[in-house]
Amino acid sequence: MSSKEPTKTEPPDPEFEALIRYIQENRGLDFRGYKRTSLQRRIRRRMEEVNCDDFATYHGFLEAHPQEFVELLNMVLINVTSFFRDTEAWEVLKNDVVPRLLAELGDHGPIRIWSAGCASGEEPYSLAMLFAEALGSESFCSRVKIYATDLDDAALNIARHAMYAPRDVESVPQPLLEKYFERTNNHYVFQRELRKCVIFGRHNLVTDAPISRINLLVCRNLLIYLESETQNIVLPRLHYALANGGVLFLGKAETQLARSKMFEPVDLKSRIFRKVPQEWRRSLGGSLTISPDLPNNRQSFQTRLLESIVDNSPAAFLAVSGDGTLVFANAMARRLLDVAEVDIGRPFQDMAISYRPAELRSRIEEVQTTGRTLRLEHQEYARPPAEPIRLTIEVSLLYGADGKPFVTLLSFTDTTRVHMLQKELEAAQESLETTIEELQSSNEELETTNEELQSTNEELETTNEELQSTNEELETMNEELRSANEELEVANEELRRQGEESGEYRRYSESILRSMDVGIIVLDQDLRVRSWNRWSENMWGLRSEEVVGEEFLDLDIGLPVQRLRADLERILEKEIPQQPVVLDALDRRGRPVTCRVRLSPLLYESRETRGAVLIIEDITEQSRAETFAGYLGRVIGESLNEVYFLDATTFRFQLVNRGAETKLGYSLEQLKQFTVFDLMPEVTAERFHALVEPLLSGEKQEVVFESRMEGRMRGTYPVEVCLQLFNTEQPPILLAIVHDTTERQRVGADGDEAKAVG
Fold first, then answer.
1. Would you call 712 exposed, middle or buried from its count of C-beta atoms within 10 A (0-12, 13-18, 19+)?
2. Which residue ranges does the record annotate as region Disordered (predicted)?
3. Using H for helix, E for strand and C for coil, what is the string for 324-385?
4. Do residues 151 and 204 make contact, with C-beta atoms less than 8 angstroms apart?
5. Would you tell me how many other CB atoms lie within 10 Å of the CB of residue 191?
6. What are residue 355's phi and psi, to 5 degrees?
7. pLDDT band at 280 (very low <50, low <70, confident <90, very high)
8. N or C: which end of the chain has fewer CB within 10 A?
9. In 3-state terms, the chain is what percent helix, strand and coil (to 5)?
10. Which of 44, 34, 18 is nearest to 117 (CA)?
């Protein structure tokens, strides 16, 4: 055992934990994963500013002054950021990483970027400029989506407005500043089109589900504020969020990935890493060729060599057959795991090693089912009276020459020293991270102090300029007062003009409603009539002044308004249009009419429903036409003549009437598999195309010819075919009306016989 023991964690301060719980309950911020030393230091700094001596006192201060949350969160969440922070790392990202990433994704694939801990937005907008330069603005807007998340709602609000002071954009190169920012007064606003591609949202890396399929994930100087256990939770989340080949960009003070197997370095100095896919796959291996035994049954040299290698291996090996029997144990397994020769052939589940140091029976079944290798790291194995050791266990399938698994191999490796070294390394790493975090915090505080001093200097200069301009302002004030009276007169004239325009607009709107050839009725939220146009007056016999302000559902008109009650209530509740309703009604003269009523919500600019709009159409003639069309369709469908609707390109059956199904002996689904000339033995495909060509070219409107049709049950029979093309239909339809001429031929034959007899 090493003489270096990790420092024991100090017991939590109950008052401090109560304060953290209160912040979480009132602001939804979960600080449980943050380093307690760093968190306490920042909260104490704020406590000193408000003269609170302990956490309990500050807890009471927060309850009495809710506005204090804003200052506290600004202190704790450390919203220190800037455009292109750490220029050298951004240059590596621009020159090496982004071109390689774009080459891998191709010219048309979507690009997903995540900026975690984005603070006031400088980082995601830096990424937007970087990719816009590489892709061009048009391609950027169509392909790139940048997700920017943070815990601080105030910082996110600043980021969404994308408005920055001159000192905030000092680190932006001048060409990019002129290209992507607009100057308004004394601020710079990020370009609107690119800003639409940046989506801001509140997100907690520790507790919220990560965004998936990310190609570039930027998480700078955030992990250093988290506890080691919390980092071990966050890193797999970052790994999951990245697509295969995705890139992770950390801050210069973060070294967590130096020992992680989930990422490989791309540029370690700039803290740029690439995701390592964690997909355990095992291909079928070949088998060793053992020379055949000699006639005297002595072992071959190869067999003795293999046995010697296995027995002298520092790893312990056990082999379990498919039926769960232990079939092999090497010398190290017998020494390390207390497996004797007599145990060979016993069921593995009856042995102590099957459940100690880890439960292995279910793991064996899992490996046999999935075919994947399973690895258990650093399992504690007690061997009294000796000190416990750590074993790394690997469970895998062995395959025979036929490519099929025939045995499960368990290997046990003593990794006690590796485990101890790893623990010592983690302790040293955590200490180093804490030191780096403190240095980083001090550096950020110095940067903040420098910015505040610069701001104070600018304010003093501004104050001097303001004092100088005050005298000029006093001199001009008298002139402004004189001109104010003139402006008021102009304003009065403008109000009068707006009143006239408003009256003209009202008359214009009313004239439009009067001119509509449909009924338009507008109802308020209480279903009282607000508008009633001239069509409604003519149809129902009530003037506008008689119904405006009345309950619509109480009106005594020829329309059955009570049947609209449920739809109107749904519109007011769900704020979505309803399906049109067809109602039978009576007009003001008592004539029956058919009306289609469309109901929509009355929406103002705030998208809030203020009532309902009814549009009523008289569809009496349309309904009669549709009834007649249905009647005509039924007559044709029941006709004994054969009627075919054919595809004008392939000449396949699309629709036939009942007479066609009866005479041909096929159902419609069966006929759809044929072309029409498949059922005409005397007509080839080329001949049929030649017959139809005058129709397709527009030379003729109708083609009539005689042929023979082949029915399924009755065989062939003579027919007369009349073809017409309906080009205006989509798609065009070729109509064939087929007359069975069997009876016509029979009459002709009887006439010939009569002549012959005469």
1. exposed
2. 440-464
3. CEEEEECHHHHHHCCCCHHHCCCEHHHCHHHCCCCCCHHHHHHHHHHCCCEEEEEEEECCCC
4. yes
5. 17
6. -130, 0
7. very low
8. C
9. 45, 25, 30
10. 34
Of 439, 438, 365, 362, the C-alpha closest to 397 is: 365
Q: Pick the closest to residue 380 from 371, 369, 388 (CA basis).
A: 388
pLDDT at position 333 is 84
Distance CA 459, CA 188 (A): 19
From 182-186, 455-459, 540-544, the region with the lowest mean pLDDT: 455-459
Neighbours of 62 (CB within 10 A): 19
Provide the b/e sequence for 440-471 (b: ≥16 CB within 10 Å): bbeeeeeeeeeeeeeeeeeeeeeeeeeeeeee
Strand order in the sheet with 214-219: 198-202, 144-150, 111-116, 214-219, 242-250, 272-275, 263-267
Lowest mean pLDDT segment, chosen from 63-67, 137-141, 195-199:
63-67
What distance lies between CA 416 and its chain's CA centroid?
45
- State pLDDT tens for residues 370-425: 888 888 988 888 877 778 888 999 999 988 777 788 899 999 998 888 888 888 88
> How would residue 637 be classed by pLDDT, with cut points 50, 70 and 90?
low
* pLDDT of residue 175 exceeding 90: yes
Strands 653-656 and 642-647: antiparallel
Entry pTM = 0.38
CA geometry: angle at 700 spanning 696 and 705, to 5°?
95
- Alpha-carbon Rg for the chain, nearest whole angstrom, is 43
User: CB–CB of 224/437 below 8 Å?
Assistant: yes
Token readout for 4 is 């270096």
The DSSP code for 95 is I
What is the rounded distance in angstroms from the CA atom of residue 729 to the CA atom of residue 731? 5
Report residue 650 as tokens: 């392939």
Q: What six digits make up the tokens of 689? A: 């195309």
Spatial strand order in the sheet of 609-618: 529-532, 519-524, 609-618, 592-603, 581-586
Which DSSP category does 494 fall into? Answer: H
Cβ neighbour number for residue 145 with a 10 Å cutoff = 15
Closest CA relative to residue 83, chosen from 27, 165, 156:
165
Per-residue confidence at 300, pLDDT binned at 50, 70, 90?
Answer: low
Judge whether 661 and 669 are in contact, CB under 8 Å: no
CA atoms within 13 A on the CB side of 456: 6
Q: Dump pLDDT digits (tens) for 242-269.
A: 998 899 998 775 665 555 678 888 888 8
CB 244 within 8 A of CB 216: no
Q: What is the pLDDT of residues 685-744, one digit of tens each?
A: 899 898 889 988 888 889 998 899 988 888 888 988 999 888 888 788 888 989 888 877
Quickly tell me which residue has 């590596």 as its tokens: 92
* Terminal alpha carbon distance of the chain: 132
Q: Which two tokens stand for residue 445?
A: 């505080």
| Structure tokens given for 222 | 């955030």
- Provide φ and ψ at 396, rounded to 5°: -145, 165
- Residue 654 to residue 646: CA distance in whole angstroms: 5
SS3 169: helix
For residues 644 and 656, the answer to whether their CB atoms sit within 8 Å is: yes
Rounded Cα distance, 430 and 436, in Å: 10
Q: How many CB atoms lie within 10 A of CB 373?
A: 14
127, 112 contact by CB (below 8 A): no
Phi then psi dihedrals of residue 752, to 5 deg: -65, -40
Q: How far apart are CA 113 and CA 35, in angstroms?
A: 27
Closest Cα partner for 723 from 738, 703, 746, 743?
A: 703
